[in-house]
Specification:
Blueprint (H helix, E strand, L loop, with lengths): L5 H26 L4 H5 L1 H9 L5 H7 L4 E7 L2 E12 L2 E9 L3 H11 L6 E2 L2 H6 L5 E8 L5 H8 L4 E5 L2 E6 L4 E6 L2 E7 L2 H4 L23
Length: about 220
Amino acid sequence: MLPFCPAHLLFFAILGVCCFALGLWLAFFRQGTPVAWLTELQGPLFEPMAAGQLTLQGLREQAPEGALWVRREEGRVVLSYGGRLAAAEASLDLLGELQLEDHERASLAQASGADASPQRLAGTVVQAMSARRLADVVLTPAEPVPIRDLVASLGEPRMRYALGQGEGWFYPQRGMTLMVRDGTLDWLRVTPRAALGEVREGEAPTAAPARLPPATEHR
């Protein structure tokens, strides 16, 4: 057995401390940091939407400079509120589809002549529809959100599945579907939990959100 001099022991002690510090740093790096805007919007936006209680008025309080649009999508008329909101120093595009009955869609189609091109509606219509509930809300962040930070905020998804060019993350208890691509969040959709029911892998939401023109370009 080879003897160790004090210098050798000191070297191994320093090496052990460095390895321990590196392990802690890697663990912290991989753990991620909770996303501030996900936390900030939980009370005013995500939970009411997941509970099926979010109204157009509640959505406008988060993005007051938005606008109401009508368009025809897959054979049906869709009424959506689009805008931009700021939360925890982050900028996000917002799109919320209003709940409509079939006869309301038919009347709206006849009155507006809606086609595939979005048409902006007058502010008086926004006021008249302020108590209407939302069918879903989609947020698209302007800045990349790493997936490790999503996990730090939301935990691991219940289900992962192929979605377009990326991967879908499904959180049924939160009413959330996330699209992640190239290691970052592409968009996040919140739907009432009651509308999801018992969703199996082949039935998970897959449709990408529509894109509306910025409201500021049409004022």
